[in-house]
């Protein structure tokens, strides 16, 4: 069965799954860098490549390609919960909290390697970074689908813009 058909079948009846259920579904897909290679997009309007593999009201499945030395914007996932599976490379997930003025303040980070999972709870503000020696390719599932996502800036970024 082809990758997109497998993804469609796996997520067709998904409705508000728990993190352990998402992990089990993703593992059952038996994803490899070779299987997803035709769907890896190069960055264009964003600092990373982004391919939507499936989208419904209940779930959105996305393949992310973060080149060496790049990072996403600081962001949240709106009303969604996220689960990412590292297929290739290493990721640093930086978690932020918002200060009283709505600026993002770094509060911690965790390093992830190939075949590890990252869970982003609803409302979590974070940034994915690739400080590794090669590209990062990760498979993401958001439930429900992404809506009302926001990006944030640090106080220092705002000062740099003003000055």
UniProtKB/TrEMBL annotation:
Pfam families: CDO_I. GO terms for molecular function: ferrous iron binding; oxidoreductase activity, acting on single donors with incorporation of molecular oxygen, incorporation of two atoms of oxygen. InterPro entries: CDO_1 (IPR010300), RmlC-like_jellyroll (IPR014710), RmlC_Cupin_sf (IPR011051). Signal peptide: none annotated. Fe cation binds at residues 75, 77, 126. Keywords: Dioxygenase, Iron, Metal-binding, Oxidoreductase. Belongs to the cysteine dioxygenase family. This is Cysteine dioxygenase. It comes from Paenibacillus piri.
């Amino acid at each position: 069965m082809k990758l997109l058909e497998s993804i469609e079948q796996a997520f067709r009846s998904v409705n508000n799954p728990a993190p352990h259920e998402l992990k089990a579904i993703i593992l059952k897909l038996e994803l490899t860098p070779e299987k997803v290679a035709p769907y890896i997009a190069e960055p264009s309007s964003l600092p990373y490549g982004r391919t939507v593999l499936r989208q419904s009201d209940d779930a959105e499945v996305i393949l992310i390609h973060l080149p060496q030395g790049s990072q996403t914007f600081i962001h949240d996932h709106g009303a969604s919960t996220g689960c990412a599976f590292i297929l290739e490379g290493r990721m640093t997930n930086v978690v932020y909290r918002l200060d009283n003025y709505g600026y993002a303040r770094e509060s911690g980070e965790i390093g992830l390697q190939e075949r590890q999972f990252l869970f982003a709870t609803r409302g979590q503000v974070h940034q994915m970074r690739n400080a590794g020696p090669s590209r990062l390719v990760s498979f993401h599932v958001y439930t429900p689908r992404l809506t009302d996502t926001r990006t944030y800036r640090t106080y220092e970024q705002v000062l740099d813009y003003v000055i």
